[in-house]
Amino acid sequence: MKTLDLLHRWTGGLVGLVLLLLGLSGTILIHRDAWVMLPHASDEQVQDTPAIIAATEQMMADPAARPSSIVFATDSLGLDRLSFGKEAGAYADQAGNIVTRWDDPWQRPELFLFDLHHHLLAGETGEIVGGIAGLCGLFFVISGTVLWWRTRRTFAFRLLPKRLSRPAILRHHRDLGIVFAPFLLLVMFTGTTMIFRPVSALVLGLSAPATIEASFKAPEAQVGALADKPDWARMIRTARERFPDAEIRILSLPKEPGKPITLRMKQAEEWLPNGRTTLWFAPDTGELIEARDALTLPGAAQAFNTFYPLHAAKVGGLAYKLVMTLVGLALSLLGSLAVWSFWFRRNRTARRYGSGVTVPAE
Questions:
Q1: Is 152 helix (H, G, I), strand (E, B) or coil?
Q2: Residue 108 and residue 110: Cα distance in Å, rounded?
Q3: How confident is the model at residue 148 (pLDDT cuts 50, 70, 90)?
Q4: Closest of 74, 55, 78, 51 to residue 66, by C-alpha
Q5: Which terminal residue of the chain has fewer beta carbons within 10 Å of its beta carbon, N or C?
Q6: First CA to last CA across the chain, in angstroms?
Q7: What is the dihedral of CA 11, 12, 18, 19, to 10 degrees?
Q8: Euclidean distance between CA atoms 13 and 258, whole angstroms
Q9: Alpha-carbon Rg for the chain in angstroms
Q10: Strands of 88-92's sheet, edge to edge?
């Protein structure tokens, strides 16, 4: 038990700051659509087929300047989001008119926070660091629960420490952590699994990572080069015929030659905000190559599709958003106080007096 306590304290002291950043940025991102202050941001979502076709054709009209993907408006954000390469992007109204552009995600606060939360502003390296912090977070929740059991009779719930002394901070850390432990476990597991997919095997079984990979992989097909004017109307109408009640969510151009155009849709039964019902089209002719219904995917893939909406509070309405907001704030508090108490509030081992005698500090 002493070794477990030592590991918990030292790992927390080293990783707590990363968890603070993840917790705070994630909490703000839960509500990010509410503070996108742009014209048409509060417009009602449009899913009318002719309107979507017209807007898509307008946004994709110029072969030299068309976006690589379009994320269509939702019921919480009335703007389409366009991506141009790796960094640049734009918001457009649902008629296809550009509202604002950016060359760097730092120019948009919601995109900056998204990059901070997902990549720690360090690209793939930051994403890996965040994943490792998530694994450490799983260890903290499990080991903290074990360590708390010894002191369960002294439990007292407080939102903040009684005082900023190290014993008070440690007691607050222990008791606040046990209150939020189930939700912290959920957040850490779902977040880590989205970065390190093999972690899904802990809950979904050893074969889950391979099943998930196969379920999301694009079909192999011989296709031509992307046409100057792809038949967007044909693709969107075909998607509507296959899934008449589903929302059209994301349209993506091929990332390399010889790959299909991808259209993602969201059926009412899906939790994932952008859905995982996917259609692939030939980039030269607009002919349908394959349509994959998310509701008929293997159980492991369907379960994996619930991880992001659970992690980001994209399901469960306002009540769950408020719960996850509290969880994010609790994680921020636990991480920050763990670092502060470990590095800056450790009791001095001794106080030296003029006589040269050393006595323990109180």
A1: helix
A2: 6
A3: very high
A4: 55
A5: C
A6: 26
A7: 130
A8: 49
A9: 25
A10: 98-102, 88-92, 80-84, 69-71, 247-252, 261-266, 277-281, 288-292
